[in-house]
Amino acid sequence: MYAKTMASVVVIFELASQKNCFLIRKGGNNSGKGESVQIQVFEASYAEGKKAYFSLFGGVLKSGDTVTINGLYAAKLGIKDLQQIVLKPVSCSEIHCQKVQVEPLSVDDWEILERNGSTLENCLMNQVRVVWPGQVLPVWVEKSICVFITIGEIDPLGKFSLLGTNTTVIVTPKSRSLKRAGSQHQPFKMPYRQATQDQTDNSLLPDSPHIKPTPMLPGKEMHSQKVPTLASEY
Questions:
Q1: Region Disordered: what ranges (predicted)?
Q2: Cα torsion at 129, 133, 134, 135 (round to 10°)?
Q3: Model-level pTM?
């Protein structure tokens, strides 16, 4: 079991191509094999009053450590490569999200989700655990295609909440047509199934009973623009 980081630390954020919204301690043990991995949640303070919340994998943090973060997610948060940020550990034992409302950031994002049926519900918890109102994050529905969503209301209301197997996700449609804009919200519960290795890229995540890969459900053919991986950019 990982010991938890108890005091605030100053760490370096390094942009990476990992397809999730977790912080991963560089050089840490991210496999989680043979260990009971507990989620650590940190409040980040940076850039003149901005705050964000992250879950961490890779052991105990100390000042001067480097953590990796997806470059697309960092851009939405206003975090730059090699930026030093203060992380303060926060208690998360009782903050489990019962219901969360999400909205695609653009009409294009909504149309991708609409073509892919229930893909979002299968991917979300494998790629992010901490959510808060106003958060904008990428979600990969395929290896090279991601959509951006905005977190709306969370229940129970608080600064942040943890997604779980019983969290109900309500998706707000975003339409090009005013007539279609009045469509009803479509609630669904996130399932909790294990995928084969070639169905999702979670090599950086611990093999934990709390976080297991889930399979991509087959969807209709998509004609959306592919998002390039960040390996060539950072």
A1: 176-234
A2: -10
A3: 0.74
Both structure tokens of 146? 């991601």
- Asked, for residue 2, whether it belongs to a domain, the answer is no
Residue 119 zone, left/alpha/beta (φ > 0; ψ -120 to 50; rest): alpha
- Residue 82's CATH number: 2.40.40.20
Q: Other CB atoms closer than 10 Å to residue 114's CB: what's the count?
A: 17
* Token pair for 50: 């901005």
Residue 80 lies in a domain: yes
Tokens of 219: 């969807």
Residue 140's domain comprises 99-171
Q: Count of residues for the chain?
A: 234
Closest CA to 70 of 12, 138, 149, 145: 138
Structural domains in the chain (count)? 2
pLDDT tens, 9-48?
Answer: 999 999 999 999 999 999 876 554 444 456 789 999 998 8
